[in-house]
Design brief:
Distance between the termini: 48 Å
Helix content: 40-55%
Radius of gyration: 23 Å
Order of helices and strands: EEEHHH
Strand order of the largest sheet: 1-2-3
């Protein structure tokens, strides 16, 4: 469950993706109910969220090197439209264009 934390006055409030609001009082109640239940957590069956994102380009493990650049709004919109037409992300479109330019320069 992904939640965003907000403040309502002095009380923290978490909002789930579905929009459900969980206050500190709700969280305390849920914790008490869980702790008083006979439910046991088996570490062998626990599921943790997978890391998202594309696989590393730098080898088996680790983070791929990154290049960041800025565009004017008009160019960004054009890139988004082109990427959507090609069914890829803007990052994939930029990566493909840069790799093509590098290949031509060899």
């Amino acid at each position: 469950m992904t939640v965003k934390q907000k403040r309502k006055g002095s009380q923290r409030v978490w909002v789930t993706r579905s929009g459900r609001r969980i206050t500190e009082a709700n969280a305390a109640k849920l914790a008490r109910e869980f702790e008083s239940s006979s439910t046991e957590i088996d570490a062998r069956t626990m599921v943790f969220p997978r890391k998202v994102g594309r696989p590393s380009l730098g080898g088996k493990n680790g983070t791929s090197p990154q290049i960041t650049f800025r565009l004017d709004t008009k160019s960004r919109r054009a890139a988004e439209k082109l990427a959507a037409r090609e069914g890829v992300t803007v990052s994939a479109l930029a990566r493909k264009a840069l790799l093509a330019k590098i290949a031509r320069a060899k």
